[in-house]
Amino acid sequence: MSNRPLAAAGRTVPLLRAGLIAGIVIAALAYPLAAVTGLGAKATAHATEHKTRLLAKALPAETSYLYAPDGKTMLTMFYEEYRQYTKLSDMSPNIQQAIVAAEDSRFYQHKGVDPKGVVRAFVANAHASGVSQGASTLTMQYVRMALRDSATTPKEVQEATQQTSLRKIKEMRLALDLEKELSKEEIIERYLNSAYFGHRAYGIYAASEIFFSKTPKDLTPVEAATLAGLVKSPSQYDPASSDQKEATARRNYVLDRMSQLGYLSPDAATSAKAEPIRLKLTNPPNDCAAVPEKFNSWGFICDYLKNWWSAQPAFGQNRLERMDKLRRGGYRIVLSIDPKIQEAAEKNLGAGTGSPFANGIVLSEPGTGRVKAMAVNRTYSLDLSENPPSSNPEAGPKVKANYPNTVAPLLGGGDLPGYQAGSTFKMFPMLAALNEGMPLSTSFNAPHRYQSAIYDGWAPTNASGAMTGMQTMWSGFGKSVNTYFVWLEERVGADKAVHLAEQLGLRWRTDVDREQASPSKVKKWGAFTLGVSDATPLEMANAYAAVAADGRYCEAMPVQGIFNRDGTPATYTTASGISREVAKPRCRQVVTADAAR
């Protein structure tokens, strides 16, 4: 016997075996309980059913948008994956047809897994002694993307994407079940909103905007075929590269397939293939550094918004989860800043951006805590290359000063300690005294120097000898008489003044301040009334706003509205189980109305 028939038989047997295996796999997937029995089978079926329902409800990560108070002027976006979910009705039929032609021509005939495709892939791979052809339908691809996007651990990401037969079989099973939950139209809509097209474009809305500066509804057959061709390999078929040869070949393949499936006439396909790929590239803004130049000062407000967001339990258990929600949650965020007040604040700063002295203005709305202006004589920019060296001798020669460019939260809302606020702190012992029932007429013959018996002999002085004499709360506050207020703080208790400041929003950011405010030392913190503690302009504006609101303190808030991707207001649940809007003012009575007045 010659070797030729044996060689032929050697090729044929594996091919037949591959087809047989493919048939068995499909049968086992379609009828899983025929292949396995017992409690394990039931548990597996229940787990698969649960996963299928989760996938049916799952939505991909979506870009969050930041707007000016008019709710229309977009300032910037926040995203890791640039994506805006788009309904199928808002997509051109061209892209729907192109993606079917490119990725799964039998999409409307199979039920999640294409038996012919599986057999074809098994045969091709057996013949090639490796993976030369896949068998993934659009549904299977969507399952893989949904599993990846909904993963919460690195292990889940790996399980969703690893190249193993077990993963493929699970994927097939889920695809079969998912097609019982979702219609073909729902699946292709989700697929087109999940797929990656390169250049940080996730989903067809982002791809249409980034490559052609248009919406998915306006895509032509040529543009749709170009984008559909990218899904297979975004880098290999990138039309924005210097050589469009492979991108054009892939596009033409998709156009040919569209013609073969009856989506395009042969003449239309031929005409389309003759066109060059014409791009109109767009680079979508991302994060605060991308705020438009005419709104440059709003970059500081944007940065404050991020710091505020990272502290809100409504968006996660920790800072990392909350920022992930911002970049993936698809929120519509409307700032509280009043453009006219902001403009007036900027005009009244005094020194220019080149001044080493940081002049700032913060305006907080009494009764709501909403920040209406936040202006500082600095340019919001990450580029510090032209800034002079820092004047801090401990900073080192390579450290730059924070002017004219900076992104440091100089006005508050970030991690910087703040500034000594001086005599503005006299409000706290005064309010504490009034809240305790002491009248404004409370008098003391204030000397130029006052030696405290309570504060271990500490002996502060007044700014001027002319302040010496009988003072009341009226005159002592009006003239800012140090010795009167040290005496008043002794009478009401430094601990009560400090506690009131905490109730009005002050936080101790330095080790020294935290130590002085500690239970063991707070009663001896006499210098507190003279403003030796670090505070931010934002904190002080908000504390004084509480006095203007009849003693009702409201947490500082940079927003007037936060909306979920479905348009409903973002909410959180209070400790008492009540659902409240995140952007709704959070206020509480801290001092009596009479004391505040």
From TrEMBL:
Coiled-coil region(s): none
Keyword Hydrolase carried by entry: yes
Domain Penicillin-binding protein transpeptidase: 361-563
Record key words, sorted: Carboxypeptidase, Glycosyltransferase, Hydrolase, Multifunctional enzyme, Protease, Transferase
EC class name: transferase
EC number: 2.4.-.-
Signal peptide: none
Residues in Glycosyl transferase family domain copies: 75-258
Annotated catalysed reactions: [GlcNAc-(1->4)-Mur2Ac(oyl-L-Ala-gamma-D-Glu-L-Lys-D-Ala-D-Ala)](n)-di-trans,octa-cis-undecaprenyl diphosphate + beta-D-GlcNAc-(1->4)-Mur2Ac(oyl-L-Ala-gamma-D-Glu-L-Lys-D-Ala-D-Ala)-di-trans,octa-cis-undecaprenyl diphosphate = [GlcNAc-(1->4)-Mur2Ac(oyl-L-Ala-gamma-D-Glu-L-Lys-D-Ala-D-Ala)](n+1)-di-trans,octa-cis-undecaprenyl diphosphate + di-trans,octa-cis-undecaprenyl diphosphate + H(+); Preferential cleavage: (Ac)2-L-Lys-D-Ala-|-D-Ala. Also transpeptidation of peptidyl-alanyl moieties that are N-acyl substituents of D-alanine
A Pfam family per the record: Transgly
An annotated Gene Ontology molecular function: glycosyltransferase activity
Name listed for the protein in its UniProt record: Transglycosylase domain-containing protein
Source organism (scientific name): Micromonospora azadirachtae
